[in-house]
Every structure is written in C-alpha cells, then in structure tokens.
Write the structure tokens for this entry.
Amino acid sequence: MTSVTTLFAPVEGDLKLLTENLKNLVSARHPILGAAAEHLFGAGGKRLRPAIVLLISRGTMLDAEITQRHRRLAEITEMIHTASLVHDDVVDESEMRRNVATVNSRFGNRIAVLAGDFLFAQSSWYLANLDNLLVVKLLSEVIRDFAEGEILQGLNRFDTSLSIEAYLEKSYYKTASLIANSSKAAGILSGVSPEIAQNLYEYGRNLGLAFQIVDDILDFTGSTEVLGKPAGSDLVSGNLTIPALYALEEKPYLETLIEREFSQEGDIQQALALIKESSGIERSRLLASQQAKLAVDKISCLKASESRQALINLADYVVSRLY
C-alpha cells in the first residue's frame, strides 16, 4: 500500500516548513497553553488537510511559485482541525488519540477547552489577515459546521431512527466541510475560475466523506493499537455510524441493544457481533469507494501534474486503508 509520505512527495518540503511555522504561530504567552499547543503539534498525525491545500495550491499554480497566502491557508487549516479535535476529546471524554494522551487527560478539561478556543481564535486572526473576504467566509463556515456537527451527534446518541442522509450530513459538518472549503479556498487564492473552484470544493467534499466512512468502518475492524483508541468506541458512546445503520436494516435485535444503551452484560459484544455478521461493513466499503471515485472525477479538471496525480492517488489511498 502506498504510504502517505510517498503520496505527499510533491509538497514534502512545504509540509516540513508548515510544521515549524505551526509551533511558532501557536506560541502562547501562558506557559500551560503553550505546552498544550506544543503537545498537540508534536503528536504526529498525517497532516492530511494541509497537504491537500498545498497540493491544490501547487496544482493550480503550475507556472509560478505558491504564495505566502497559500502556505498560511494550509497552516490555518491544520489549526482549525486540531482545535476541533481538542474539543471533540473533551466532549467524548477521550484519554488517547493517535496513541498519545489527549490534552484533556494531560491538562484537564478546563485547559483543553481553552486550548481549543485559543487555536480557533488564532486561526481566525490569521484568516482575517489573508485579506480575501471569500476565503474568510469559506473557513468561517467550517468553524460553524464543526459546532453544528458536534451538536447533531450529541442529540442523536442511541437514536436507531437516524437516517443515512442524516449520518452523511453530520459527517459533512464534522469532517468533509474543512477539506471541501479549504480546497476551494486554495483555488481561489490561485485565481482559478468559479467552475474549477466548485470542482475543487466537490473533490474535498467527496474525499472527506470517503475518509469519514472509512474511519467509521475501521472503528469496527481495526485494532486498538492501529486506531489509537479502543475499537468500537463510537458504538459504546451511542454514536451510530454507517456500518451500524446498515446493520440495523438486517438485524432487528440490534435495535433493542442500542435503545437500552448496552445496559446489560454482554450487550456491546453481541451488538458488535451482529454488525460484523451483517452486510453493513461491506456496504459501507462500497459507499466509501463511490465517494472516492466522485472525488477523482472532480479533480480531473486540473491540468496534469505531479500534484494532481497525488490528489488522485490520495483518493485511492483513503479507501485502501480498509485492506
């Protein structure tokens, strides 16, 4: 399987610079906030979202060097993403992420909430300084979408009547919105046509949905070591994802287990077994593949280049994580 490092080869140097810049951008006057930020950006991660921004920037600026505003957009994208993870971990009471202690488990909920707020505020300030109103609107919408997605997820806990459409809407808010809107923003900073800007948005939207569906499948099929959190975490917390929603159509007893919130001994093990016996995981794989294919179709609007090929390969990579 192709590694992320290989995929991001066209922007390898850009990503190294980004990591250094991030640590400078989030340096805080208060030592604990600074330590929390340092801990976050030192925790690794694939840097998937800024890499997409940088690849689109290079793929739309074939005859010129990418600008400082493209680089700053990539940094803002990672800051917004990281802020959302910090708040997610507080809401979900998570102790580990990427096999590293979460900010809330290390510094407490109070500092974690403030660290997330601080990162959102910092990203908003740098966003305003890009001096491009359309880009500001696009990325501001993402921050609103994160909150809406989290609220929807909270309201729908253990709700077996949740539709596939509602699941996809929540997945857009929580994952795809950032990738879609930052992809479009990168194109706008390059001066692409409105048609190409919209195709870049659709690429990010479909790729983001594929990525979330794959993550939700891996929550049932992956190991704790690979996931960096206990397998089946979403189901235990009442967050019904696509494999469970498909399985509910085939396994009526699963509804009983979910609605009593796995309150009896052995409930969660039985629920996991029912989901794995159903065609839910296979149907979810098919949906992820369809979304990835749609992403590839949309990115074909760009001229052939190393960066465009990397964006195409990235869609294949997202689905290949399942195998």
